[in-house]
Amino acid sequence: MSESFENDVLGELGDDRLQEIAGLLGTDAAGAQEVVGSSVAELSGELRLAAAEPASADEVRAAVEEVTSAEPPLQGVAGFGGLAAGGLMAGVLGKLARPAANAIAKRTGIPAATVTRAVDILIPVVLAVMTKRAATKKSGGAGADGLGDLLGGGRR
Asked: Each residue of 6-61: pLDDT tens digit?
């Protein structure tokens, strides 16, 4: 893909939501952008790990299939931060939010509860980017085959 998943999420997030995260974290836009990047990378990694674990692989596979086959793609799910319209993938990402936030908190020294709130803001944005990527693949004539197509790139 021409743009990284992180860049797509930052673009979907927009300046207002980035400022909201900066305020939450007590940092500036650059600091918030760094935490967002770490959060996206961590969530992507956690999602890839969950897909490889026998206990969670079926759930992740079903969530990916739901995202890639959604007609029409979920639009505007990031608008109000609601997860209700997100379906299975929102549930999967919600389960991965705490481990991702804890890992980021350990690396950054930011309290885990604060990072968790920032990651919670990001989940609907990540979901929106996934659905847009799936729709773009579909409209281009190639189906999004799996998690790698949604997230782009290889392992973290």
From this structure: 999 999 999 999 999 999 999 999 999 999 999 999 998 899 899 899 988 899 88
- Tell if the pTM clears 0.85, that is, is over it: no
CB-based contact 21:138 (threshold 8 Å): no
The answer, yes or no, to whether the previous bond of 72 is cis (omega within 30 of 0) is: yes
Q: Name residues whose C-beta falls within 8 Å of residue 152's C-beta, 6 or more positions apart in sequence.
A: 1, 4, 5, 133
Instruction: Work out the end-to-end distance of the chain between its first and last CA atoms, rounded to an integer number of angstroms.
Output: 16
* Helix, strand, coil shares, percent, the chain, to 5: 75, 0, 25
Distance CA 75, CA 57 (A): 26
Which DSSP category does 146 fall into? Answer: S
Helix (H), strand (E) counts: the chain: 6, 0
Angle at 20 between CA 48 and CA 43, to 5 degrees: 5
Cβ atoms of 78 and 33 closer than 8 Å: no
Integer Cα distance of 59 and 63 in angstroms: 6
Q: What are phi and psi of 2, to 5 degrees?
A: -75, -35
Q: What is the pLDDT of residues 68-126, one digit of tens each?
A: 775 544 444 443 344 444 588 888 888 999 999 999 999 999 999 999 999 999 999 98
